[in-house]
Specification:
Number of helices: 23
Distance between the termini: 134 Å
Subcellular location: Cell membrane
Protein name: Penicillin-binding protein 4
CATH architecture of the largest domain: 3-Layer(aba) Sandwich
Helix content: 25-40%
Radius of gyration: 38 Å
Membrane topology: Single-pass membrane protein
Number of strands: 26
CATH superfamily of the largest domain: DD-peptidase/beta-lactamase superfamily
Organism: Candidatus Enterococcus clewellii
Family: Belongs to the transpeptidase family.
Number of domains: 4
């Protein structure tokens, strides 16, 4: 019996233990579930803030907390939207979140906010918000200090800005290349449009006169803020209307003013300056201090110097009480003045050069050889940057985009085979190596030549049949055969070592990207043909006009390269002893007869009162021998006596578009008159 009683006792104890464990387990599970609910509620709160989803955020608060302050969740959501949009918040980070349990099912959540705004960063002090359980879920208690600590119900957030205007870009003489300009702006006041059919007729008349679709006009007129007496902007006008034209506008049309970027020289400077445009979402992601109200450099020097040109608006973001007194300053950003960028460009020469290109695919680059300052960098065809700023039409943009002559391409930075102008460099290398002399005369028969039968069907050709050729004649008459033969005598090692002293493979220190020049696709020439072809500027040589001009500066600087620069008053950078002074001056003086001699290819530019040296060149692009390829024409020219300017003009497909020499007259005349 005693055993039975003991068993009953044990069973009872075990049963009680099991029950106790079950009860304890229940409470543990319940507690874990409750913690998950608390954590989930807090996560929803911080996520809505981070995403600036203020509708979801305001829905997390209790109706009682809104009622106690005589507001609604819709009003709170709108208040957040107004405040955070007004101060230009781009990104919100919720940090140092802490959950503290209070009495019963109440909690206090604390956290900090970091706000990235267009004026800078605001790091707030600690926020606290009460969270209470309502049956199966949790809600928060709204209070004004959740906008910013220390805010009370009647307080507001105000932004005072001190705006800066974008800095100007000037030419070397202070002439404005990029400025801020008050354009006429077409607007409509709806109260003057009339009603019904009259309204429709007036909108149609405005549409036809200003080339704006009625759909776009009506879309703008149907914006929520529009009232009968308010000016509704429709289109910024590139060309100014006269007083008479303004007086005869259709009913409802009004002319106002708006300040926008303006490029006085239009297409002539477009490839160099680029243009500005509205800030995109991608721009803001890269730089949170930007806002959609800003303009930003989209291409060219406007993009390269955007930060300096843009400066920074000053701003003060304050909490203000009902009497207009500042309670607390959340952020104070000092105004940063924009820079004025002065270029080395001569705007008058730039315009003359651009006009001389005649809209055909071509480019012109002029420099001051002693300093490397670029006086001209232009190309054609081009585009109107003012249209890009004011809002280019789909038709105009499509016209540019579909143009096979590529009006958006900056040809002065694009690489080309340099053609026969490169013979000047081959000559200088040959003079320094001793393989070319000033006295040697070479007998050359006919208009074509090949080393031997190993060259197969490849022949080097020349234009002028000259039986006896020395260096001067070879340069003046651009004799391919002479330079092909001399390159073979030099051999690849000597020739390539000479070329490597130049700037092949170097990235130029310029605010616009110029792809480095290259000698060949591989480290060595793959044949004697390739070597010979390179000697007269073909082969696989690829050099931009800007890089070409830098290389040719050896002939104006006693054998030293002076690197190009485009911003005024920069330190002159040189590369000395690229070729010898004797070689450089020999080549330069030999080129004078190209202009001075009636038999010279550039005699059309001869001026008895000015000593100009020049070298023409063509680079033929063709699929195979014995076919007619496309020719790019080059003209290289030098101010010999004063050494104040040198230039390169290139004309693509010159058989159809005219030679570089034909495009040079007006520009050379201007340079001779103004850079004596």
């Amino acid at each position: 019996m005693a055993g039975i009683r003991n068993k009953k006792v044990i069973i009872g104890v075990v049963t009680v233990g099991i029950i106790a464990c079950s009860v304890a387990g229940y409470f543990v599970v319940k507690d874990q579930q409750e913690k998950k609910k608390v954590s989930s509620a807090v996560d929803k709160y911080t996520a809505a803030l981070t995403k600036q989803d203020f509708s979801k955020y305001s829905a997390l608060f209790s109706e009682k907390s809104f009622a106690d302050l005589a507001t609604t969740k819709e009003d709170v959501a709108q208040r957040y939207t107004n405040v955070f949009t007004g101060i230009g918040v781009n990104k919100i980070a919720v940090e140092n979140v802490s959950t503290n349990k209070k009495e019963g099912d109440s909690y206090e959540i604390s956290y900090e906010l970091k706000l990235d705004t267009e004026f800078g960063e605001i790091t707030t002090e600690k926020y606290t918000v009460a969270m209470n359980k309502n049956e199966t879920s949790y809600s928060f208690d709204w209070k004004p200090s959740l906008l910013f600590p220390e805010m009370e119900e009647d307080d507001t957030v105000k932004v005072a800005t001190d705006e800066v205007a974008r800095g100007e870009i000037l030419d070397r003489n202070g002439v404005k290349l990029a400025e801020n300009y008050d354009y006429q702006q077409l607007g409509i006041t709806t109260g003057q449009l009339g009603e019904g059919a009259e309204r429709e007729q007036n909108i149609q008349a405005i549409s036809e006169k200003f080339s704006v679709s009625t759909e776009i006009i009506n879309e703008k007129l149907n914006q929520a803020w529009v009232k009968e007496d308010l000016f509704v902007p429709i289109k910024t006008l590139e060309n100014e209307l006269s007083a008479a034209e303004v007086a005869s506008l259709p009913a409802g049309a009004v002319i106002g003013r708006t300040n926008q970027r303006h490029y006085p020289f239009g297409e002539a400077t477009a490839h160099l300056l680029g243009y500005v445009g509205k800030v995109s979402a991608e721009d803001i992601e890269k730089n949170p201090e930007l806002s959609e109200n800003h303009s930003i450099g989209k291409s060219g020097l406007e993009a390269a110097f955007d930060e300096q040109l843009r400066g920074k608006d000053g701003a003060s973001i304050d909490i203000v009480d009902k009497d207009g007194l500042v309670k607390k300053t959340l952020l104070k950003a000092e105004r940063i003045e924009p820079a004025t960028i002065t270029l080395t460009i001569d705007s008058e020469a730039q315009k003359i050069a651009y006009d001389s290109l005649g809209g055909k695919p071509a480019t012109a680059v002029i420099s001051s050889p002693k300093t490397g300052e670029l006086l001209v960098a232009t190309g054609a065809p081009s585009y109107n940057p003012n249209k890009m700023v004011l809002g280019i039409s789909e038709a105009d943009y499509k016209s540019y985009a579909d143009d096979t002559n590529l009006p958006f391409m900056a040809r002065f930075a694009n690489r080309y085979a340099p053609g026969s102008t490169f013979k000047t460099i081959t000559a200088a290398i040959g003079l320094d190596s001793g393989h070319i002399t000033t006295t040697e005369e070479r007998n050359i028969d006919g208009l074509k030549w090949q080393k031997d039968e190993s060259w197969g069907g490849f022949w080097t050709t020349r234009v002028k049949e000259t039986p006896v050729v020395d260096l001067k004649k070879a340069l003046v008459y651009s004799d391919n055969i002479f330079f092909a033969q001399k390159s073979l005598e030099m051999g690849e090692e000597v020739f390539r070592n000479g070329l490597n002293k130049f700037i092949f493979g170097e990235e130029l220190d310029l605010p616009i990207y110029v792809e480095p020049a290259s000698i060949s696709n591989e480290a060595t020439f793959n044949s004697e043909i390739h070597l010979a072809d390179t000697a007269y500027g073909q082969g696989e040589l690829m050099i931009s006009p800007i890089s070409q001009l830098a290389m040719y500066s050896v002939f104006m600087n006693d054998g030293a390269i002076v690197y190009p620069q485009i911003v005024k008053d920069q330190e002159v950078k040189t590369k000395k002893d690229v070729v010898s002074s004797d070689a450089a001056n020999t080549v330069l003086n030999d080129l004078i007869d190209s202009v001075a001699s009636p038999e010279g290819y550039v005699y059309s530019l001869n001026n008895p009162d000015f000593t100009l040296a020049a070298k023409t060149g063509t680079a033929e692009i063709k699929e195979k021998q014995d076919t007619l390829g496309t020719e790019n024409s080059f003209l290289l020219f030098f101010d010999v006596n004063n050494r104040n300017f040198m230039g390169l003009i290139m004309s693509e497909n010159s058989r159809d578009n005219g030679t570089a020499t034909e495009k040079a007259g007006s520009l050379v005349q201007y340079l001779e008159q103004h850079y004596k």
